[in-house]
């Protein structure tokens, strides 16, 4: 058995990404909505692969690390049958569609985007020429509710830079934002909900035409298109009649989605669960599936902040569910969810430090829910948006160390040895006291 698609820079399912500790496989979960059957399929596959953990990523995907074998045809077929794999393996490299994790249950949302996400994902899967797009091509759809993605979150570290981002501004219209190179490009374009599929298809096809006409050996990104054409020229070349209104703005969204949160459905709530660095054991996932079946609707929601939501819980049952979550050794504490770390050693050859291990040490010592991004090299993987504090891995006198930054400002004259992490934690705690 060999891989079914050529390798790409971004991990996928039908092609393995080699790492120092084995193979990395990433499974796309459009919109982050994980049905009961999909979650059960993930557990069964994990058992087959003899792995005990799975990780939620910063795009609400699921990924397995350190695998030692290529998935069998049965694995591919199983994931395709439950909607967790492309029918065309060569399209698997495109990023999953990101959506509001509280779509359909958010009490303040303007548009429930779930059916739109599924329709657009189907369109992408049935457009084989999109194989020509770069692997970081991404779409985000935000329903305008309490919990927002893309440009809406009031906290910069939660921003996700989808290249095509639609944010609801009325009960029938979205505003278009373009995202690339870790920044947003606002437009004055409004798109009716009923026109979203055709508008995204037109935007995508124009982007593809630019890629196909490029003389670069590497597939150009949207940032390259915007540099060459500018926003207006790009929009003018799109074969779609856009509505323009410069007076409409995107409303901000709040940060907190953990713990017990009210739903729009009367008498129901969702419970946001923190996952340290996005990790959960397969035993914990089994437990969450059981809780979702017993107290919810059977569904789980993955978030772009590496946490998980259990929706549709009756208000009078929430205390029981919280006790069960604690029994699974999971929590709703924001401190467990705001530290982000790249793969680090031993998985990544570029990393100078064991970032995941060091991140867990930090989490256990923090007094406040502070966003800290720990990266083992200057590439800054794991969090695309600006962090409150960044620990940049390096080597000092032959030992692992970190340079500490607050935003872009260094906070120490020299790197701090990794075995002195308590010094870093003490400084961060002091700055937040």
Can you give a write-up of this model?
- The protein is an alpha+beta fold and 433 residues long.
- The longest helix is centred in the middle third of the chain and has 18 residues, at 196-213.
- It starts with 16 loop residues before the first strand and ends with a helix.
- The chain is globular, with a radius of gyration of 21 Å.
- The strands form four sheets. It has a six-stranded mixed β-sheet with strand order 6-7-8-9-10-11. Strands 17, 18, 19, 20, 21 and 22 form a six-stranded mixed β-sheet that branches.
- It folds into three domains: 94-253, 2-Layer Sandwich (Sulfite Reductase Hemoprotein, domain 1); 259-333, Alpha-Beta Plaits (2-Layer Sandwich); 339-432, Sulfite Reductase Hemoprotein, domain 1.
- The model has no long low-confidence stretch (mean pLDDT 94).
- Helix 3 packs parallel to helix 4, helix 4 crosses helix 5 (222-237) and helix 8 (355-365) packs across helix 9.
- It has helices at 36-49, 73-81, 114-125, 196-213, 222-237, 282-295, 318-327, 355-365, 421-432; strands at 17-19, 22-27, 33-34, 53-56, 62-67, 98-99, 139-142, 164-168, 173-180, 183-192, 243-244, 259-262, 268-273, 279-281, 300-302, 308-314, 339-341, 372-375, 389-396, 399-406, 409-410, 416-417.
């Amino acid at each position: 058995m060999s891989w079914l698609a050529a390798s790409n820079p971004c991990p996928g399912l039908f092609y393995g990404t080699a790492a120092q500790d084995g193979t990395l496989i990433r499974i796309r979960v459009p919109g982050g909505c994980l049905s009961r059957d999909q979650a059960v399929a993930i557990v069964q596959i994990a058992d087959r692969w003899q792995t005990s953990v799975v990780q939620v990523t910063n795009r609400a995907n699921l990924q397995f690390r350190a695998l030692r074998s290529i998935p069998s045809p049965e694995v591919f077929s199983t994931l395709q049958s439950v909607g967790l794999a492309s029918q065309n393996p060569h399209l698997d490299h495109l990023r999953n569609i990101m959506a509001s994790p509280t779509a359909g249950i958010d009490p303040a949302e303007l548009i429930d985007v779930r059916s739109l996400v599924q329709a657009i994902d189907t369109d992408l899967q049935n457009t084989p020429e999109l194989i020509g797009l770069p692997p970081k091509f991404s779409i985000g759809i935000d329903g305008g509710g309490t919990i927002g993605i893309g440009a809406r979150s009031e906290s910069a570290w939660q921003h996700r830079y989808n290249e095509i981002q639609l944010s609801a501004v009325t009960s029938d219209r979205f505003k278009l934002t373009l995202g690339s190179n870790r920044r947003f490009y606002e437009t004055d374009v409004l798109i009716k909900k009923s026109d979203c599929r055709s508008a995204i298809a037109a935007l995508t096809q124009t982007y593809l035409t630019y890629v196909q006409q490029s003389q670069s050996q590497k597939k150009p990104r949207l940032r390259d298109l915007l540099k060459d054409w500018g926003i207006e020229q790009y929009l003018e070349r799109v074969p779609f009649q856009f509505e323009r209104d410069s007076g409409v703005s995107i409303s901000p969204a709040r940060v907190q989605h953990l713990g017990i949160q009210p739903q729009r459905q009367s008498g129901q709530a969702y419970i946001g669960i923190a996952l340290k660095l996005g990790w959960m054991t397969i035993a914990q996932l089994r437990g969450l599936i059981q809780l979702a079946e017993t107290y919810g609707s059977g569904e789980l929601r993955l978030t772009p902040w590496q946490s998980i939501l259990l929706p549709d819980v009756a208000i009078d049952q929430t205390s029981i569910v919280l006790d069960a979550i604690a029994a699974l050794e999971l929590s709703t504490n924001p401190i467990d969810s705001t530290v982000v770390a790249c793969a680090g050693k031993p998985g990544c050859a570029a990393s100078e430090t064991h970032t995941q291990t060091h991140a867990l040490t930090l989490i256990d010592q923090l007094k406040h829910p502070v966003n800290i991004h720990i990266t083992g090299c200057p590439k800054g993987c794991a969090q695309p948006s600006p962090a409150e504090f960044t620990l940049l891995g390096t080597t000092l006198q032959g030992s692992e160390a970190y340079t500490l930054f607050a935003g872009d400002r260094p906070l120490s004259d020299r790197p701090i040895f990794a075995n002195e992490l308590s010094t870093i934690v003490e400084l961060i705690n002091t700055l937040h006291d």
